[in-house]
Amino acid sequence: MSTTKPCPICRKPRSAEFAPFCSPRCRDRDLAQWFGDGYAVPGRPAQPEEIAREVLRGEDD
Known about the structure:
Blueprint: H1 24-35, H2 48-59
């Protein structure tokens, strides 16, 4: 029985070269999901004013 997890996109065996995916195709599909809002971090969306405040606060460091 294999102890390695399958590719999270297609469930085929992982490739060490493209881990945790099996191929560049699955790696790119995952990246496209992040860019296209297919995945999301739970929580309310940040307001532009909140983002600006955080950026300005970081510049003081």
